[in-house]
Structure to design on (602 residues):
């Protein structure tokens, strides 16, 4: 549910405004309205500094800071500037190493030589010429016919030099290359120097990692400064710049605390309960179960203040859908045990997520038990005396297919009930009549169909009693879809809504088949890995079990990852598309973000 909000309008004398904002920031419970304001140059500069600090912190978190105690004397700006400078320098040396390695690859086959000696010989008329020839084209007779010396043989080529005192001409198979301008050792020494400098840079960066706390403190200080400036600039100036008017929002459970604070200050304020049409911030307040699913609902959008929070309404369905898609009791047990064990060491902020994993794992165990699937093995096909009497209770593929459609219809109709409640709350009961009529029509169709399956029952589909219900629902659908407008207009709109409902309802219901398909694929893939493990294992006793264990571990790990991903994404899709649409979800609200002084968490 959405926490009720109170709207405050503060009227403060301009000389007291900064002091009032500081106290309001220390109080830390008022969400200030900052609509239709532009970011000035000073705020842009602060944002830029915060961004540079954030980038630097993320980088330094990857470094290995020394453990010894060192006196720190650099400021945050010094650290940022030095880190950026060192990273640029390291990037330059990395590029220089790549270039040197490329040059080394060209001259390495020629080994080490003295370029000055070659030039001196050339001045005296003795040229040292460099040649390459493939192993196939190179002839040993060349060694006797020409003054050549083989330098290297690698990569399918001969590398050799010719001592030419005149105009010696080798066969065409020998390809002359330009004289290398440096030896391999020169490039090796150059690369070594670059690497030594990079090591020095890395050591200094590791040392700078000690300043992470300093950077975080500066980041928080700048954030508080930015928040203060943004709130201050959001105030309207009245009475020839002598009065400052500011609007804010306070949750209902904190209202008394804010009123006590304001009563002690020298200012005028007006407080009123937020109206449905107000653009009040959204603070979700749900029970312990539904609160676990709030991170999922926030992935889509916050509701607007006037409508219902759908988190507690989709939470049970999401839990069931996840278990349906995963559909393996063994995998679910791993989720439950893993989350339970990790809970003992996890930080408090991560424990709700682990609790959610436990719940989703329990749902997976439930549907795995329903189908008799454990680590890809079907209990129905196994000869286990203990479960022999229970095999008839396991659901086959036909039942699971029908169950997916039934769950889909239930959620769709439930979403329409939520939509009717939303319309009733936001507007009036008249606006909810059309949706309620559709709910009555659909439920009556299902109820009378089921009752009509009994041959002795007089209550059947489209029996006189049912036709009366259909007629009443039809009136609501055709003439109350847009209260206050012309009946003929309503009738035409009702026909259009009927067409959309008939086609949309079918498509929405068929979308839930994905629950059955994903659950089936998870079990089949697990079964395939089981067959591979036992079918590919050799007959060697020890090696056989090693191969079986490796294939099972790798295969089921892949299946768990893929199935968990699908079991998370597709229920979200069903929730945010099918359920939200049928529940008439509007969305677009903004979260409650109080103006408060932030501090470094230890």
């Amino acid at each position: 549910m959405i926490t009720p909000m109170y709207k405050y309008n503060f009227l403060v004398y301009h000389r007291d405004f900064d002091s009032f904002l500081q106290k309001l920031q220390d109080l830390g419970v008022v969400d200030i309205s900052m609509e239709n304001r532009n970011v000035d140059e000073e705020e842009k500069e602060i944002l830029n500094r915060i961004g540079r600090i954030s980038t630097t912190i993320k980088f330094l978190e990857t470094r290995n800071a020394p453990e010894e105690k060192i006196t720190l004397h650099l400021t945050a700006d010094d650290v940022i500037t030095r880190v950026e400078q060192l990273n640029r320098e390291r990037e330059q040396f990395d590029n220089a190493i790549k270039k040197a390695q490329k040059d080394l690859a060209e001259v390495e086959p020629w080994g080490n030589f003295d370029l000055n000696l070659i030039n001196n010989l050339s001045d005296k008329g003795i040229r040292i010429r460099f040649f390459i020839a493939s192993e196939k084209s190179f002839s040993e007779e060349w060694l006797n016919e020409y003054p050549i010396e083989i330098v290297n043989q690698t990569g399918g080529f001969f590398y050799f030099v010719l001592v030419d005192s005149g105009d010696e001409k080798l066969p065409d198979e020998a390809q002359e290359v330009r004289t290398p301008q440096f030896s391999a050792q020169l490039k090796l020494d150059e690369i070594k120097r670059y690497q030594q400098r990079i090591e020095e840079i890395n050591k200094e960066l590791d040392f700078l990692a000690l300043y992470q706390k300093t950077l975080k403190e500066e980041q928080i200080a700048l954030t508080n400064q930015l928040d203060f400036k943004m709130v201050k600039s959001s105030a309207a100036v009245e009475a020839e710049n002598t009065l400052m008017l500011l609007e804010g929002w306070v949750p209902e459970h904190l209202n008394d605390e804010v009123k006590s604070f304001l009563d002690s200050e020298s200012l005028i304020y007006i407080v009123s309960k937020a109206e449905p049409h107000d653009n009040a911030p959204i603070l979700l307040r749900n029970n312990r179960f539904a609160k676990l699913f709030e991170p999922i609902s926030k992935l889509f959008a916050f509701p607007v203040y006037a409508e219902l929070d759908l988190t507690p309404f989709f939470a049970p369905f999401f839990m069931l859908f996840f278990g349906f898609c995963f559909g393996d009791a063994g995998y679910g047990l791993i989720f439950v045990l893993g989350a339970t064990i990790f809970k003992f060491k996890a930080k408090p902020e991560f424990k709700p997520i682990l609790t959610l994993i436990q719940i989703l794992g329990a749902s997976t165990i439930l549907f795995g038990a329903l189908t008799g699937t454990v680590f890809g093995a079907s209990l129905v096909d196994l000869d286990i005396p203990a479960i022999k009497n229970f095999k008839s209770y396991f659901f086959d593929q036909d039942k699971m297919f029908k169950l997916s459609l039934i769950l889909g219809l239930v959620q769709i109709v439930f979403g329409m009930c939520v939509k009717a409640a939303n319309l009733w709350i936001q507007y009036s009961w008249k606006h909810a009549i059309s949706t309620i009529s559709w709910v009555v029509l659909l439920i009556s169709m299902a109820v009378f169909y089921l009752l009509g399956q009994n041959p002795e029952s007089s209550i059947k589909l489209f029996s006189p009693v049912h036709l009366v219900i259909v007629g009443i629902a039809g009136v609501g659908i055709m003439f109350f879809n847009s209260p206050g407008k012309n009946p003929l207009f309503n009738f035409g709109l009702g026909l259009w809504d009927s067409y959309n409902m008939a086609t949309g309802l079918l498509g929405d219901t068929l979308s839930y088949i994905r629950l059955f398909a994903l659950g089936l694929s998870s079990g089949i893939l697990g079964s395939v890995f089981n067959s591979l493990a036992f079918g590919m294992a050799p007959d060697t006793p020890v090696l056989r079990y090693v191969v079986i264990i490796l294939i099972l571990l790798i295969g089921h790990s892949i299946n768990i990852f893929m199935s968990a991903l699908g079991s998370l994404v597709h229920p979200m899709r069903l929730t945010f598309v099918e359920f939200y649409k049928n529940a008439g979800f509007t969305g677009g609200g903004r979260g409650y973000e109080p103006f408060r002084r932030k501090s470094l968490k230890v």
